[in-house]
Automatic annotation (TrEMBL):
Family affiliation: Belongs to the phD/YefM antitoxin family.
Listed name of the protein: Type II toxin-antitoxin system Phd/YefM family antitoxin
InterPro entries linked to this entry: YefM-like_sf
């Protein structure tokens, strides 16, 4: 396991992202900030706090169903997105 600072990570992102495929990389963000763990996306989502939450999984499933059913909002003008949303 490697623990680094946010400043170190910014300076060597590629190196630490590559390293995270082989071992845990924890980024310590300093005072009053939570540290984060770099995790490859192909790891099991069963142990992932976010993706193991039933509410999150249900919201994702509902979103997929909405898209399949055509319940979406199309944005025609990226400079004026609120015109299409509201």
């Amino acid at each position: 396991m490697r623990i680094i600072t946010a400043r170190e990570f910014r300076g060597k992102q590629k190196d630490y992202l590559d390293l995270a495929e082989k071992e845990r990389v924890i980024i310590h963000r300093g005072k009053n900030k939570k540290s984060v763990l770099l995790t490859p996306i192909d790891e099991s989502t069963e142990t992932d706090v976010f993706f193991s939450d039933p509410q999150v999984l249900n919201a994702i499933k509902e979103g997929i169903e909405d898209v399949k059913a055509g319940r979406v909002t199309s944005i025609r003008d990226l400079k004026n997105i609120w015109a299409d949303i509201l």
